[in-house]
Batch of 3 targets.
Target 1
Amino acid sequence: MDAKKAFNPARVGGIDVKNRIFRSATHEGTARDNKVSDDILAMHRELAQGGTGLIITGYVCVSKTDNAGPTTVTVTDDACIDGLRIWAETVHAHGTKIVAQLNHSTTQIFSRPKGTVFGPSPVPDPVTGIVPEPFTGKQLNELVSEFADGAFRLKTAGFDGVQIHGAHGYLVNRFLSPAFNTRDDEYGGSPENRRRLVLEILTAIKTRCGMDFPVWIKLNGSDFSRDGKGFDREMFLDLSRELAENGIDAIEVSGGTLFGEHSPSRSKSHTAYHLDFAKELSEAVDVSVVLVGGLRNLATVETILGETGIQAVALSRSLIREPTLVNRWMSGDLRDAECVSCNGCFNPKGTRCFFHLSEEDKAFQKRVMKLMGAMGKKT
Ligand SMILES: Cc1cc2nc3c(=O)[nH]c(=O)nc-3n(C[C@H](O)[C@H](O)[C@H](O)COP(=O)(O)O)c2cc1C
């Protein structure tokens, strides 16, 4: 087999890609009334034109029980399909593939909830303080169907695959975590029971969309919880093995939460910070492993691809700052990504690089960043 190279075409997670540098899911925050907007299309057109091999969308909501606000895309009924189709076509026009990230926000919502906020168990959210109402068993059955229905709408619209968001303290991750899942039914109490929901979601999507429709997942290698009670490395490896046995096509390795010792989006002093987890995973399972987190340098990417079983890398903030970064590197300009990992791109008006804002918007965003720091919200 040829050595893996960043810019060679490849098949990763059941999808043929033109290169191995992907955009990791990055919530756009610019949907209009939960529909695909011109801003979303413009962002993804630029990324696709800029050479990115595959784009994982920012999370989209699959469930009517999710309280995410109007700036998040929902895939909860067939009316979304036309907008999704334009989104997929916009990206495909430049030879780039597109995978949609499926999510349920549970208590990680930063606007006033429209209705009841659901979660595994009534454990207060460390950032928002919201105490969720536990899903009943029947509601969980409906939720599993909602994931499958959402995936089927995306497939119908032409998406190349879906990615279950199993990381960063959102619902699937909370079910996996003994700190947040204190249930005593078949969805909690033991590691097997905590894994039940995500395995049911995977099976339901494959059953609805066909075994050959690629289903990926983003997982935390560890939650890095301060009290050691969260999802950890051993749980990550056990779950990954079980997902592999049940047909998952790719596992993207991330880590951290908004409240743990580390956030998923760390500062500039951290580079390739989930490499150990991803490398270990690539030796343990026979599915594609994708690494995300602090990748800023092409030589590092090539070394990772060349010396480990990792199949591809995914970038978020660097591509917010420079959507054409992949083309820049391909053209031979090998300077590091310009992103300084300031996290000023977490913008309530929509994801934008801090350095691309007007002076007025920069002043507003500085106040937001100060507030997020005061709330203890780690970004
Ligand atoms: C503005 C912003 C929005 C993000 N939205 C998501 C998201 O919707 N889903 C997700 O899994 N990760 C999300 N992330 C995390 C990134 O995908 C990525 O895991 C993290 O930023 C580390 O990669 P990086 O160092 O290349 O930025 C987001 C990150 C940023 C900066």
Note: The chain has a mean pLDDT of 96.
Target 2
Amino acid sequence: MILDLSPIANIDGKKLDIDVEIDFDNNDMGICFLKPVRVLGRMVNMGGSLELSASASTALRYTCDRCLECFEREFECSFDEVLKKEDTRLEDENPDAIYFQGNSLDIDDIVLNNIIVSLPLKSLCSEECKGLCPKCGQNLNLEQCKCDTRVSDPRFDVLDKFFE
Ligand SMILES: [Zn+2]
Ligand SMILES: [Zn+2]
């Protein structure tokens, strides 16, 4: 999605409202988007730089880390970025800024990168997910299997013998 920055690029204090949808259907990050990402936010010319504050919302398909089932969940994150014109980079480079050329800015990478860093480290279909049986692989959320998965502890073996 290319944003046209010309209405604000040269006027300090000028604001640009953003309300766009970006389709990330064919991304190579392994993220499964169930619908386009809605980006809502605002870009403000702070004199020398543009400040972007935005939120991105969509729905994603995840694979549960415990039971390996797929599940779908709404996703939202918000982020801020500082944008500067490429031709100011030589004079004073800001390591945190994103540089752009001309008066147009492709925000796809900015949005996708912010989504990636906001993804949960662990994806669980539910906090109570029981996962898979380590012996037979049965999904324990669906049905309890008959396996004995108690971890044997030699101290208890001694006790077992004692009571025999
Ligand atoms: Zn699960
Ligand atoms: Zn089992």
Note: The first helix runs from residue 108 to 118.
Target 3
Amino acid sequence: MDNEELTLFRDMTRRALEQEISPNIEEWEAQHMVPRQLWHTLGQAGLLCPDMPEEFGAAGTTPQVTFAIIEELSRMGFGGIASGYGIHSNIVAPYIEHFGTEEQKAQWLPKMVTGEALGALAMTEPGAGSDVQSIRTNAVKDGDEWVLNGSKIFITNGMLADLVIVAAITDPGKGAKGTSLFIVDTTLPGFARGKKIEKMGQHTSDTAELFFQDVRLPASALLGELNKGFVIMMTELPRERLGIAAQAVAAAEGALDITVDYVLERKAFGQTVASFQNTRFTLAEVKTEIAVNRAFYEKCAEAYASDSLSAEEAAMLKYASTEMQCKTIDQCLQLFGGYGYTIEYPISRFYTDARIQRIYGGTSEIMKELVARSILGR
Ligand SMILES: Cc1cc2nc3c(=O)[nH]c(=O)nc-3n(C[C@H](O)[C@H](O)[C@H](O)COP(=O)(O)OP(=O)(O)OC[C@H]3O[C@@H](n4cnc5c(N)ncnc54)[C@H](O)[C@@H]3O)c2cc1C
């Protein structure tokens, strides 16, 4: 898509989201869950997995279009839905497209495009978050099948997912070199969901604990090569981090927009809040920080499009953009005074939705470690 087409597409997306999500967002936020139907609706609107190949019923666009949808969801203050959407369209579908067999693609991608199948990615365990190499979930070969045992925590879309890509040990004692990925159909016996994990924000993305007890997987459930799970995860991480940066930059832009509207209206000491020098400087700082991050995000998105986004750049981008998101949204909320702290004003949702961005997809500290390693070589 050229720039003009992308602008038209963004407008169309915003109209669809305005119609399908805006009237319901407060109810869904209160329920801490979106209805399963939302994913069918987004599928019908052609908004799920747009960059998957046309042969699977998708639009066959570039990933730029998927990033644009993540941005519009985030800009409108639907941070939780943006996360669930990102996992489904920006992570799970590309994993299958890039590493799946023709049979796996034919089985899952058409349903992911329509919303009939919702995807999740399960790496984290109670004892292994940043240190993913310490996972204990394991799969043991038994005849033609794999037997999967273990548990995962904090899995986005976990309550509703129809397929979960699960990282499991297949060669014990070899750490990263003994880890494989499996596509787990959640209707299989032995798969169970724990209770929904209650969070401080992103209420419209459900987060679950998942359990696998002697889940018998067919040989065809293995995603990519045996014991190459880590290589696959590392290959896909730059795209995942680009998606998180898309959320960060667009959410900050959306927060700034509603803040400008508010300070122009709100009066104190006989003048608008916008007229105070502090407000003017804060808005100037926020706008500048967003612009700097948007420029780096777009540079990284272009690098991804030409297959040249490095792991270090993606880590720098994730770190910088999510720290900027939290800082600028906090500055915006301050300009709302007490109203900013109430759930009646969406700025409070921008604020609570932002906080996790510095933690999932690799914490800011882990991003700094990755960048430092690229500088020092160790
Ligand atoms: C809402 C939500 C959604 C999530 N979605 C998913 C999902 O869909 N799939 C999935 O697999 N996971 C998911 N996660 C898990 C998330 O990726 C992890 O929480 C994250 O990677 C951090 O792991 P941890 O929570 O175990 O923290 P820990 O690893 O225990 O970290 C604790 C603290 O120690 C710091 N730390 C750890 N190691 C180092 C180090 N080497 N150097 C310096 N500091 C360090 C961390 O930065 C952090 O500040 C989600 C989490 C949440 C809360």
Note: The first strand starts at residue 119 and ends at 122.
